[in-house]
Amino acid sequence: MIDFDPSTFGLAHTYQKEDKDEINTLALPSAPQVIYKTLNGPTQISGGNKLNNFKHGTTTLGFVFKEGILLAVDSRASMGSFLSSEQVRKVIEINEYLLGTMAGGAADCQYWLAYLANHCRTYELKNGSKLSVAAASKFLQGILIGYRNSGLSMGCMIAGTDTTGQHLYYIDNDGMRLKGDIFSVGSGSTYAYGVLDNHYRYDLSLDEAVELGIRAIYHATHRDTASGGVVRVYHIHQDGWTKVHDGIDVVDLHYRFAQQKGLVGDGDEAKQRLF
Amino acid sequence: MDSIFGLQGGDFVIIACDGSIAHSILKIKETEDKILKLDDHKIFGISGEGADRNSFGELVHKNHSLIRYKTGGYMNLQETAHFVRSMYAQAIRSRDGPHQCNGLLGGVDSDGTPSLYWLDYLGSLQKITRGAQGYANYFLLGLLDNQYKPNLTKEEGIEIIKKCIKELQTRFLIAQNKFIVKIVTKQGIEVITI
To answer: Known InterPro entries for this protein (chain A) (predicted)?
Structure first.
């Protein structure tokens, strides 16, 4: 007679048990008790009374190539039509060998990636070896499956290096985890994909890859109103990660790229005249 | 939007799936393998959105391994199919609701008999010779019914699957370019990408 209780299996249950045993310092967030009344004007939260309905525009991208992985992100945070910041750090440095990108809810991404960092360090101390990228991303997936209907909003990429090489995973709040070579996430991702798919090759050199990442983010920020600010570029290689560019203003990029084509960059290429 | 379809022949079972993962208007990935290998002679093609496919697949795979370990190492296709069905059925009135994915379970028993089972998210189970999950049903059942005959050979089976893929690429609104096809015979599982 086969006798098992299916509720003891499944990722959500595993996560909750481990949480009580190991991690005492970070408390799980509790639901807000107060609903704020919406105001008119620039502080109005779009989507009505829901506190967790922020629009977060972003473009983040990552791709695997022969020298490792390149991550490039923009730096704009917007709340509806109000730009709350142009200097957000959307690449989260989990530890010296893992990076996470942020898209969707900033708080959700920051908190859960910090939680993941805690878990990675605890694992390393307990087991004497670093957590692999596959395992770290799987752990995050387990958390997000557990919170599936709670309104978390995260579309992040986990990229890192371990003994088997450099790996890139896409994880979102539905609990989906995908391993792949090219990902772009955020409201500007479609524009970035256009540039990325067109010029991507596995055997890009580091300089070419950095240039491709910068260009793809620039094009996304140009067309997507919710992306902008500066471009930050990180490179993951077998010894960890390096910050290649800390912040290149996309406005400067616009005029630089226009100049390369012999244009002024004022948007008047069609030379429309009214009379 | 996943297409999973399959066929049972004289001594083999084929299950094919499309490779795309879509998110609103974007195709995030084109090479995702949606057919899970349960053991050397059983495969389970799962169709569902988001994490459901992945997490239910893992649940089935690990529980299947656990039961085999507990009971001596081998489960035949009929036992496996009923086991998977019971996992679906136990979830339907649970707190989280039914597992939002459908599947096609196929394989070959140790005596060489092939079987193909159609499984539904509410716990329906039906042994079939040809079938599909998702929108692929509408495009392929006519073709599969027309082309099927008893005791197909492996080569004939692969030809029919290729015709099905061509039909989906011709008529289905959603572009599905890459398909992963897995064939189970007494010798084991063979994988082709089309």
So the answer is: Proteasome_bsu_CS (IPR016050), Proteasome_sua/b (IPR001353), Proteasome_suB-type (IPR023333)
**What order of strands is seen across the sheet that includes strand B179-185?**
B130-133, B4-8, B13-18, B179-185, B188-193
Q: What is the pLDDT of residue B33?
A: 94
Mutate to test the interface with A, among B1, B25, B27, B54 (most CBs of A within 10 A): B54
CA distance A3 to B158: 40
Place of tokens 């997490």: B55
C-alpha closest to that of B157 among B20, B52, B13: B13
What single-letter DSSP state applies at residue A104? B
**The complex's ipTM?**
0.79
Contacts of B55 in chain A (CB under 8 A): 10-11, 145, 175
AA letter at B121: Y
HSE at residue A99, side-chain half, CA atoms within 13 A, is 28
Decide: B60 and B36 in contact? Cβ < 8 Å. Answer: yes
pLDDT of residue A25: 58
B108 pLDDT more than 50: yes
pTM (two decimals): 0.80
A238 part of contact set with chain B, CB < 8 Å: no
**What's the rounded Cα separation, in Å, for the pair B64 and B76?**
11
A91 backbone φψ class: left, alpha, beta (φ>0; ψ -120 to 50): beta
Q: Is the dihedral of CA A124, A127, A128, A129 positive or negative?
A: negative
Q: Rounded mean pLDDT of chain B?
A: 94
- The span from the CA of B136 to the CA of B126, in Å, is 18
Beta strand ranges found along chain A (DSSP E):
60-65, 68-73, 77-79, 82-85, 91-95, 98-101, 155-162, 165-172, 177-179, 182-185, 230-237, 240-249
Whether chain A has a CB inside 8 Å of the CB on B92: the answer is no
- Give pLDDT tens digits for B19-43: 999 888 889 999 999 999 999 999 9
Residue B173 sits at the chain A interface (C-beta within 8 Å): no
Q: pLDDT value at position A274?
A: 84
- Give CA–CA dist A148/A174, Å, rounded: 6
Residues A44-95: tens digit of each pLDDT:
333 444 444 444 589 999 999 999 999 999 999 988 788 889 999 999 999 9
Nearest CA-CA distance, residue B20 and chain A, Å:
11
- Which residues of chain A neighbour B54 with C-beta distances below 8 Å? 175-177
Confidence of residue A43 (pLDDT cuts 50, 70, 90): very low
Identity of the amino acid at A39: L
